[in-house]
């Protein structure tokens, strides 16, 4: 074989190997991808039934029910977006910020009986929260803007 044929053979082998590696990486990424759906989208059957996803909204007032002492850390609650709601079952420790009327994101799968079976529950902090440094910067920027506007003729 000539040197040119060897180079072409190596280039072809490298391209095939690169394509195979890219395919494996993309398949691994796809299997770990978890999408977010609102209760309205779940009610409209836009959420997947065969793979895990996240549902988020507010914990409906009066919906949190803890199972008896002998059943461990079983809890059920309802996630709502104001228009629709999704009943959720979870076995495990709930986050400290978990409260009725507060934001929550649950990751899990939709069961055949309509319940969302969560493997993980994340409580969201107050949407109005802002780090003190950012609040101070915004206040300073707001004061500077008001001063500039007031000084214009």
CATH topology of the largest domain: OB fold (Dihydrolipoamide Acetyltransferase, E2P)
What is the residue-mean pLDDT, rounded to a whole number? 80
Q: Proportion of β residues? A: 25-35%
Total number of beta strands: 7
Major β-sheet strand ordering: 2-4-5-7-6
- CATH homologous superfamily identity of the largest domain: Nucleic acid-binding proteins
Main β sheet profile: 5 strands, mixed, barrel
Note the overall shape: elongated
Q: What is the level-2 CATH architecture name of the largest domain?
A: Beta Barrel
Rg from Cα: 26 Å
Structural class: alpha+beta
SS summary, helix count: 3
Outline the low-pLDDT stretches: 144-153
Description:
The structure is a single chain. Residues 144-153 have low confidence and may be disordered. This protein is of the alpha+beta class. The protein has helices at residues 3-31, 39-43, 132-151, and strands spanning 36-37, 53-59, 65-66, 74-80, 85-91, 103-110, 116-123. Strand 3 and strand 4 form a beta hairpin. The chain has two domains: 1-33; 36-123, OB fold (Dihydrolipoamide Acetyltransferase, E2P) (Beta Barrel), CATH 2.40.50. It has a five-stranded mixed barrel with strand order 2-4-5-7-6.
Keywords:
2 domains, 153 residues, single chain, five-stranded mixed β-barrel, alpha+beta, OB fold (Dihydrolipoamide Acetyltransferase, E2P)
Describe the structure concisely.
With 153 residues, the chain is an alpha+beta fold. It has three helices and seven strands. A hairpin with a 5-residue loop joins strand 6 and strand 7.
């Amino acid at each position: 074989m000539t040197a040119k044929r060897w180079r072409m053979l190596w280039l072809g082998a490298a391209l095939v190997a690169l394509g195979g590696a890219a395919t494996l990486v993309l398949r691994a990424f796809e299997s770990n991808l978890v999408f977010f759906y609102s209760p309205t989208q779940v009610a409209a059957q836009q959420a997947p039934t065969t793979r895990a996803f996240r549902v988020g909204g507010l914990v409906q007032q009066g919906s949190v029910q803890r199972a008896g002492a002998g059943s461990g850390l079983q809890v059920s609650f309802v996630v709502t977006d104001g228009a629709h709601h999704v009943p959720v079952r979870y076995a495990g420790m709930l986050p400290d910020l978990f409260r009725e009327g507060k934001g929550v994101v649950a990751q899990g799968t939709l069961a055949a009986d309509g319940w969302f079976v969560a493997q993980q529950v994340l409580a969201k902090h107050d949407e109005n929260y802002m780090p003190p440094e950012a609040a101070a910067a915004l206040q300073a920027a707001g004061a500077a803007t008001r001063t500039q506007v007031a000084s214009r003729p």
